[in-house]
Amino acid sequence: MDMHPRALENPESSLDRMIRDESELTAGVKIEAGKHYGFFTDTTLCIGCKACEVACKEWNNLPADELGLTGDSYDNTGRLSAHTWRHVNFIERSVRANEQAPFQSGWLMMSDVCKHCHNAPCLEACPTGALFYTEFHTVVVQQDICNGCGYCQPACPFGVIDLSISDGKAHKCTLCYDRLKGGLEPACAKSCPTDSIQFGEVPELILRAEKRVQALHRVGVDGAYLYGTPGAAGATGGLDHLHAFFLLTERPETYNLPPAPTRPSNRVLPSLAAGLAAVAGLTLAALATFTRNA
């Protein structure tokens, strides 16, 4: 068989062993069932290029949402939806030119995505079992089982899940479940030119993120903190922690993130108790009224 001259110039592999998963080369991660994988998104590195959005749409064959300017941002996507599983927020701060530090931008940018909660409220609310934990502890919707009831929408404290008008089913980020099964890094993380989106095992990502926060504090970025790691903002209300967590420099609300998200299931028992107490009170009042009139 004839070989290309370029191939003949380099007949030996530069690798010292067989690489089973491409993710070992692109992300330094070997993907194995039973381990917990996720994203660490460092917003201080995001340049708003939207390569992650494009890669997500191309890999998952997602159609474009409404085209055109929203009128309140240079971002034309607007929000996460059934057809937009990655969304880069463009947040412009009011910074006067004569007060801004040199070489700094007045923009905050963050690539938002499903958080793949450790204790996922959407999964708890699903009556058909369409939402499930994969072998990589990510949360995925099975459209063939979804009945379009929409219970998962209000259950999600981050407003991620959306029902598609094309099929009436729930859709969201799968953390590229099909790619993980094939040993491939998720499309958005692989396409990110600044490594703002980093893929890996969650415990390792948390350690990496903590070191990044410390490094930013040393250079004067005192407002840097983690959102979604155990014990931090975003990991409240029984969620435990998020498998897609963030490094932020402003309040969560600035990035359209809730400061203290909770699981709706935590409110079921108190709500039920309050309802029963109200019914009991009305019953006693009615009995007292009838007793007096008797």
Q: What's the layout of helices and strands?
A:
Blueprint: H1 5-9, H2 23-26, E1 37-42, H3 51-60, E2 87-92, E3 107-112, H4 121-125, E4 131-133, E5 139-141, H5 152-155, E6 162-163, E7 170-171, H6 177-181, H7 187-191, E8 197-201, H8 202-218, E9 225-227, E10 244-248, H9 268-293
Parallel strand pairs: 1-10
Antiparallel strand pairs: 1-8, 2-3, 4-5, 6-7, 9-10
Structure description:
The chain is α+β, with helices and mostly antiparallel strands. It has one domain: 2-Layer Sandwich (Alpha-Beta Plaits). Helix content is 28%, strand content 14%. The strands form four sheets. A four-stranded mixed beta sheet has the order 8-1-10-9. A hairpin with a 5-residue loop joins strand 4 and strand 5. The protein starts with a helix and ends with a helix. The model has no long low-confidence stretch (mean pLDDT 88).
